[in-house]
Amino acid sequence: MKRIYLKAAIIHEFLKGNDSLETMIFCNNDKIKFVTTDQSLYEAMGSLKNRDIDMNKLIKLAEVTEIMPFKILMQSERKILTNDRVDEIRDFEFDEKKFNNYLDKAIED
Predict the structure, then answer these.
(1) What's the CA gap between 22 and 10, in Å, rounded?
(2) Residue 56 located in a structural domain
């Protein structure tokens, strides 16, 4: 099974309501396991302009994604979310074709 890391910007897009990303994450097959860190989840949630989070979506994300502790993986403390980092996450442009190609390649390997 391949592990695909969901970075903060991807989680942010998902939480904002990107339908195609929601389908890709929720309908993944048994060849892929999505993983992220608590840091990426924190950054994604903290970067949302509208603080109304669809709790069902957040719960489903937690259900299908292995959330790893940043502190253990990186052997350093979690970082404070800065305005620059928020801008970087918000400015990310999701490329559905590129993400699909990435998933397809991961499944084939």
Answers:
(1) 10
(2) yes
Angle at 51 between CA 45 and CA 52, to 5 degrees: 110
Residue 81 domain-assigned (yes or no): yes
Residue 18: both structure tokens together = 């990107």
The span from the CA of 19 to the CA of 2, in Å, is: 23
- Structural domain for 67, as ranges: 2-93
Residues near 62 by beta carbon (within 8 Å), at least 6 away in sequence: none
- For residue range 6-42, what is the model confidence (pLDDT) as tens digits? 999 999 999 999 998 888 888 866 778 899 999 999 9
Residue 7 CB: number of other CB atoms within 10 A? 14
Q: What tokens appear for 17 in the block?
A: 């309501």
